[in-house]
Amino acid sequence: MAAHLDEVSTEELVKEIQRRIDCGTKPEKHVILIGPPGCGKGTQSPKIKKEHCLCHLATGDMLRAAVAAKTPLGLEAKKAMDAGALVSDDIVVGLIGEAVQRPECRVGFILDGFPRTVVQAQKLDGLLEKRGIAIDRVLNFVVPDSVLVERVTGRLIHPASGRSYHEKFAPPKTPGKDDFTGEPLIRRKDDNAETLKARLAAFHSQTSPVIDYYKTKTVELKADAPQEAVAEQIKKAL
Question: Which intervals of the chain are annotated as region Disordered (predicted)?
Fold first, then answer.
């Protein structure tokens, strides 16, 4: 640890200490992000995380990490994946239960990609209730399907960090390269119009009941607005 600290500048250490002090005064928040592919969650979630000192729980990333680390839940998930089956809701809820106990989630979390069904929402609420936690806000990113096609087909991703760019709306400084690391950006295989239409149909049929389930906690965002306007809507909602 000391060797790593030697490589960190005093200025960076002071900033980190100040960040921790500031985070110590932040109220707890537990937020769910709901929205179709290309709705802008990936752009806004890092801002929410930083502003409110929350941890970001993306279920896909959590599953991959658990499988790679060969944790008990990760091994169960791998068994299902290898058999070509869906990973059970109980495994995903278990991963969330482990994650919310981490120090970085002390002030709260942003949950992205879960729940997708009412049954999952009920299981999540049951888990959180045992830990004395309740969902405070559900941010529903609403974008017309026609807008999403253009957004998704031009999307570029930095695999290591999850940072997203767009060829037209938010291009990287250097074409095809991440702004921070200079590493290559990729286009996801399923970021095409045909796949998107199928995903949108599934999203609308599954997720509408989830929004109804959380209707007293849900804030609808006009997510096809400019990024700054969406960020302002989120600020008011939280």
Answer: 164-184
